[in-house]
Amino acid sequence: MKEDVMKRIGKAVGIRMGIAMSIVLSFLGLLSSGRMFQPGWMIMLICNIIISTLISLLISALVPMGKVNASLARKWNLQPGLFKTRCVESLVSDLIYTPVITLAMVLLGVGMAKKNAPEMPFVPVFLSSFAKSFVICFAAGFVLIFFLMPLFLKQLMKKEGMGHAHDKEEES
After folding, report:
1. Which of 74, 88, 122, 138 is at 20 to 30 A from 130, Cα to Cα?
2. 13-30: per-residue pLDDT in tens?
3. What are the contacts of 94-98 at 24+ separation with CB within 8 A?
4. Phi then psi for 31, rounded to 5 degrees?
5. Which of these, 22, 19, 50, lies nearest to 137 by C-alpha position?
6. Model-level pTM?
7. For residue 69, how many other CB atoms are within 10 A of its CB?
8. How far, in Å, CA of 54 to CA of 139, rounded?
């Protein structure tokens, strides 16, 4: 019974994190591209959010972050709720989600720009855009995951009437 509840909570956290990450990373990616507030920017933002949300949901369905984090905790002797543990979990999650989402968003953006400017060299523009967007989105993704993941987990566990082992955050 508890395992079913934990799976349901894990899926719900994945959905909430996917949506939150998609909105913020799509906005930051568009902002870093220099195309924010140019004609069609709102449509591009909405497309980015939809596509990155779908990618996030797919990743969360394929990668059980709870099991990944439990495995990390066993291997590295991490204690739930500690600052160090949250940093490691956030970093690993960020390494899984952010490169894929950033890659998709940059491919979409550069692909659309190439349609409007066929003479534009695709590879150099793609590499430059990806490098800039990835650094910004990776940093933002880490912060989002670090703060939102425990918040969503706590909310969902409370909703399910379960105690939460992370309530007493301890700094290491």
Report:
1. 88
2. 989 999 999 999 999 888
3. 94/138, 94/141, 94/142, 94/145, 96/59, 96/63, 96/65, 96/68, 97/18, 97/21, 97/56, 97/59, 97/141, 97/145, 98/21, 98/25, 98/134, 98/137, 98/138, 98/141
4. -65, -45
5. 22
6. 0.83
7. 19
8. 21
pLDDT of res. 161: 83
Alpha-carbon distance of 30 to 105, in angstroms, equals: 9
Give the model's pLDDT for residue 164: 47
Q: What is the pLDDT of residues 103-130, one digit of tens each?
A: 988 888 888 888 888 888 888 888 888 8
CB 150 within 8 A of CB 6: no
Q: Please identify which residue in the block is written with the tokens 């939150």.
A: 20
117 conformational bin, left if phi > 0, alpha if psi -120 to 50, beta if neither: beta
Contacts of 23 (CB under 8 A, 6+ apart): 49
67: its two tokens: 């099991």
- Euclidean distance between CA atoms 138 and 109, whole angstroms: 18
Domain boundaries, the chain: 2-159
The string of DSSP letters for 6-31 reads HHHHHHHHHHHHHHHHHHHHHHHHHH
Q: Which helix (H) or strand (E) segment is 146 a member of?
A: helix 122-159
